[in-house]
Amino acid sequence: AAGGIGPLVELARSGTSVAKEKAAGTLWNLAVNADNKLAIAAAGGIGPLIELARSGTSVAKENAAGVLCNLAVNADNQVAIAAAGGIGPFVELTRSGTSVAKENAAGTLWKLAVNAKHQVAIAAAGGI
User: Rounded distance, CA 28 to CA 26, Å?
Assistant: First the structure.
């Protein structure tokens, strides 16, 4: 990713709707790599991606949820996603998102649910 993650996070935060979709899609691909999972979080990507999952276009929601599903493999990222308010938007996406967004949101919640505190938060958000 050689320095590309920071600018992609910034595009996901403040680009046009199309730029946000493309940035999140690129981050989703990059987040397959373990080092990139950490780099995306370190670049401040979790908050903007949660915001996209909450209020972006349908494609942005799918892509943002895909990135966060990949990031949630890492225990520190799981805590960061929950702390940044990610549980509620993912519960909502499992209800009202596209089929891809639903799958990615459910995958993220599944990974977050390994933590007992997150299990309680998922239940409190109506995720059961």
Answer: 5
What pLDDT digit, counting tens, does each position of 17-67 carry? Answer: 999 999 999 999 999 999 999 999 999 999 999 999 999 999 999 999 999
Q: How many residues does the chain have?
A: 128
Q: What is the DSSP string of 51-73?
A: HHHHHS-HHHHHHHHHHHHHHTT
32 and 72 Cβ atoms separated by less than 8 Å: no
Do the beta carbons of residue 81 and residue 46 sit within 8 Å? yes
In this structure, what token pair is assigned to residue 66?
Answer: 């895909």
Measure the CA–CA gap between 107 and 113, rounded to whole angstroms.
Answer: 10
**pLDDT by residue (tens digit) across 54-89?**
999 999 999 999 999 999 999 999 999 999 999 999
The residue whose two tokens read 């990615």 is 104
pTM above 0.90, yes or no: yes
